[in-house]
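Subject: design request, 80 residues
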């Protein structure tokens, strides 16, 4: 665990070893997440990966939403 001090304006410095470990570069966007137990800092990339893992369980096997949409549109066009 690493301690950092909150400075004027609520600023905190992400320690170099953590930036290196998580691939956080100058100019990157990071996000604060309230997980109910306290704030958690995530890089945007990690936030996206986390969302993808959560949503992966809803993806139907061997389904492609684009192919499905095109098939539906072609069926509608054939009925007209």
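Subject: RE: design request

Done. Sequence follows.
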């Amino acid at each position: 665990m690493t301690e950092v001090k909150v400075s004027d304006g609520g600023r905190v410095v992400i320690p170099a070893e953590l930036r290196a470990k998580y691939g956080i570069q100058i100019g990157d966007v990071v996000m604060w997440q309230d997980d109910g137990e306290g704030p958690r800092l995530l890089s945007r990339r990690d936030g996206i990966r986390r969302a993808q893992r959560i949503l992966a369980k809803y993806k139907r096997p061997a389904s492609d939403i684009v192919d499905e949409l095109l098939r539906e549109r072609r069926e509608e066009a054939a009925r007209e």
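The helical segments are 16-22, 44-56, 65-79.
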